[in-house]
């Protein structure tokens, strides 16, 4: 065989080796690495304390790649070990090794949506909700919400009234957000509400921010109708100034933890709780729900009148009958109770 033929054969073999190597590299790093059988995606969670080894363990436990050693080799070549970003990452079916590494290296994390609404009734539920959604644990949240100096400096509140700092809103945040950063976002929304104008209005009517929030929470639980809220707030403010018991039914629901009750029973009024405004004068220790801006404004701009009683109308349409005497109030209350009985609402 001629030298020329040998060179041709050698070149062919070399090309075949290169092709095989290229195919191997392609299969290893660029072809589809993720093949879920019963789902379209999964999540990788990287904690603040996680190391490169922890990431490898997560990739392995989720069965994201067929060859962990190859993943580790390429990840180091792409300097993933020097670019670890805590967060929540969505790995989808069909992603290859390089795409997974880029996802993590370039911090393409998926945000977590926090929705603070009427489903959160108290601080304990807030803490549990956030604890389930984010890396932050309940102890960190409790420590912040018990830090009197932070609460006073940032929100003009204290641990007892801390529920008032939670603004009904939606926040899209990193799963790995830290406690101070989360409350910084909450403070941004809180400061929008409690601007200089509302702070001045609160002082003008003679109440602190925490007191306004608490009155607003009770008022909001009585009615969602703005005009009614202003009249109801006026009733509660009249009672406070006269030194009367508030006798606010929503505070009994809060004290009993029976948030879905549509009817208050006499036995509810016997519960021994500082939130029982049938037993204890003045405002309860703190708000009984997350408070809307409308309810706060209803208190700050409450209707000035002589009413000290109100009762839901028998039509159960969100409006109330207001009165200045107990005798008139009893007539309204009897009509309301009759309507509740006819509708079979016993609780």
Question: Could you characterize what this model shows?
Answer:
- This protein is 50% helix and 9% strand.
- The chain has helices at residues 3-30, 52-61, 68-77, 97-105, 123-133, 138-145, 148-155, 179-193, 196-205, 209-222, 226-242, 249-256, 293-300, 326-342; strands at residues 41-46, 87-92, 112-116, 169-173, 309-312, 320-323.
- The chain folds into three domains: 32-105, Endolytic murein transglycosylase (Dna Ligase, domain 1); 112-193, no CATH class; 196-342, no CATH class.
- Helix 10 (209-222) crosses helix 11 (226-242) and helix 10 crosses helix 13.
- With 347 residues, the chain is mostly helical.
- It has a two-stranded antiparallel sheet. A two-stranded antiparallel sheet has the order 3-4.
- The termini are far apart.
- The protein is elongated and about 120 Å long.
- Mean pLDDT is 89; it is low at 18-26.
- Strand 5 (309-312) and strand 6 (320-323) form a beta hairpin.
- The longest helix has 28 residues, at 3-30.
The tally of structural domains comes to: 3
Shape designation? elongated
Q: What pattern of helices and strands is seen along the backbone?
A: HEHHEHEHHHEHHHHHHEEH
Spatial strand order of the main sheet: 1-2
- The total strand number stands at 6
Task: Tell me the distance between the termini.
Answer: 102 Å
Main β-sheet: number of strands, strand sense, barrel status?
Answer: 2 strands, antiparallel
Computed Rg: 31 Å
């Amino acid at each position: 065989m001629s030298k020329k033929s040998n060179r041709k054969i050698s070149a062919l073999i070399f090309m075949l080796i290169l092709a095989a190597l290229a195919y191997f590299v392609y299969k290893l790093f660029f072809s589809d690495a993720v093949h879920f059988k019963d789902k379209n995606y999964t999540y990788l969670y990287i904690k603040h304390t996680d190391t490169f080894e922890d990431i490898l363990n997560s990739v392995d436990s989720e069965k994201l790649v067929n060859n962990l050693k190859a993943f580790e080799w390429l990840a180091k070549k792409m300097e993933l070990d020097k670019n670890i970003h805590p967060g929540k990452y969505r790995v989808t079916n069909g992603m290859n090794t390089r795409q997974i590494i880029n996802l993590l290296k370039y911090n393409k994390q998926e945000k977590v949506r926090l929705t603070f609404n009427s489903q959160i009734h108290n601080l304990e539920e807030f803490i549990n909700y956030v604890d389930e959604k984010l890396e932050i644990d309940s102890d960190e949240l409790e420590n912040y919400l018990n830090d009197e100096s932070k609460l006073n400096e940032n929100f003009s509140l204290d641990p007892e009234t801390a529920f008032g700092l939670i603004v009904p809103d939606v926040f899209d945040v990193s799963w790995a957000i830290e406690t101070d950063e989360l409350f910084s976002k909450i403070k941004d929304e809180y400061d929008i509400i409690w601007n200089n104008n509302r702070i001045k209005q609160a002082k003008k009517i003679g109440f602190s921010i925490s007191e306004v929030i608490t009155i607003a929470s009770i008022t909001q639980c009585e009615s969602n109708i703005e005009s009614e809220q202003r009249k109801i707030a006026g009733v509660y403010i009249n009672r406070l100034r006269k030194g009367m018991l508030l006798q606010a039914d929503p505070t009994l629901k809060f004290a009993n933890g029976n948030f879905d009750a549509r009817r208050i029973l006499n036995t509810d009024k016997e519960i021994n709780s500082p939130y029982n405004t049938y037993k204890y004068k003045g405002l309860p220790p703190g708000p009984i729900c997350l408070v809307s801006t409308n309810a706060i404004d209803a208190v700050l701009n409450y209707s000035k009148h002589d009413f000290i009683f109100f009762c839901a109308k028998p039509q159960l349409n969100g409006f109330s009958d207001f009165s200045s005497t107990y005798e008139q109030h009893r007539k309204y209350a009897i009509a309301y109770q009759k309507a509740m009985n006819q509708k079979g609402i016993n609780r």
